[in-house]
Sequence to fold (158 residues):
Amino acid sequence: MGDMSWWQALQVIALSAAPVAELRGGLPLALHYGAVPLVAYVLAVAGNLLPVPFLLWGLDWLLPKLVRLPQPVGGLIARYLSWQARRHGPRLERWGMLALVVLVALPLPVTGAWTGCLAAVLAGVSRWRALAAVVCGVLVAGVVVLLAALGIIGLAGV
Fold:
């Protein structure tokens, strides 16, 4: 693992599993901790994929409960879900799984595995197809973030 401790590796996995940060946060942290690039990639990708099955198979159960929370929280969640469905639904209908792979693979704000899982569930995509697309997207995102973190490519505007 290079100069990384087990505690640091767990921090990388946890940050990579977290929404918003995902592997965009975990992979550079692993490199900062002294992990060799391959180890940093594997830890961040593994962490980013950790919540995916729970999201894909659990959001159908969780989302209706969140929408029924007391106002204004439930209303805000309902509006957010409606916005996400309008935002990603047409792309998924037109481009299918490629749209989901790209949504997950682009290392931009409000993209990634969490958003991809939410979009797939809202669009009614088969969970197994969504899982394959999200895994592919995370693998690509990991390469892009690794190359950017190593200074090999630039991510202007990100």
